[in-house]
Amino acid sequence: MSAHWPPPFQIRLSQRAKRILVSIHPKRGLEIVTPKRLGAQQALDIIAQHRAWIEAKLHARQSHAPHAATAWPAHQLPAHIRLPALDEHWQLVHLATTTRAQLRIDSAQRQLTLLGESEQVWGLLQRWFIAHAKAQLLPALHQLAEVHNDPLQGSGIRWNHTRWGSCSHAGRINLSARMLWLEPCEVIYVLHHELNHLHHFNHSPDFWQALEERLPGALALDHGIRHAHRRASFPEWLKLV
What's the pLDDT at 27? Predict the structure, then answer.
């Protein structure tokens, strides 16, 4: 299966519809219009049945689109989510319903199913990223602190756009959930960087020397991570989260 398949799509319930239809709306993108509720797997099966037609239509739209880059449309969620930090790929299915926004998680299949209008579910997606980062990154932080005898007093995850992490005078470290889009070696660097602040609450020459001693190659990683958010691994839709 192609890395770009299936494309992002929505399911729209319509009492006027007599049967299930697959269409491509100028603004809403790929839609399944249905008179009855569909499960996530049913929706994927329908999309697969119409794959040739969908790919031809999407290709035609792309060929006639302006060459200038455009912002990711707020109504369209990604069909796939890649988290380089954890080497994980998740499939995201969006069922556009008028019911209360919900998120269903299938960890075994690595599938997220979002129910509700697009504007509502971006917030649910953000909360899942924060929870997932908390479950995956904080244990590694505390393990490193124990190995290096760092006086870590607490930790947390935030949705921070400006810094990968922060360390308070009280000994608490907060990490950004956006670290999920860093490479694994860069995640380790951020953890060591913040833990090192528990001993050197500055960026003095002593700080950098101590950091290089606990993590050889840290200085080179620091140079590369400064503009990591500009990479292709940070998807355009992430700006809407």
Answer: 66
